[in-house]
Please model this.
Amino acid sequence: MIERKWSFLVVRHDESALPEAQNESARPKIAPRNKTEIILAEIFCTALEVDDVGIDDNFFELGGHSLLATQIISRIAETFSVEISVIDLFDAPAIEPLARLISSRANQETLAALINSSNDDEEREEFSF
Model:
């Protein structure tokens, strides 16, 4: 029994009067649509220890945190040979925008390699007699 002087700490409420909780998982998950999204979904599922991830699911809302973010970034670098930062993951925390970012970075790196390769060829031609 609670002493009378502490009874003000006991809060009683009518649970039937409370609003129903919004179930975020009730919205349909959109499955990955391309190879990049499929691979990212597998990376997310492994890191977050979940069975299924939709392309709109937010990494941080699914339980992700900064330590898992570094694991995700490392796996992305290994898998796609593209460097992204933790800030990039905060800016694009779902699979769909992250896949677009990775594709964009991969295209930029390929273009830069082609430009550098072209410049190397021009330099060789200048020095050959």
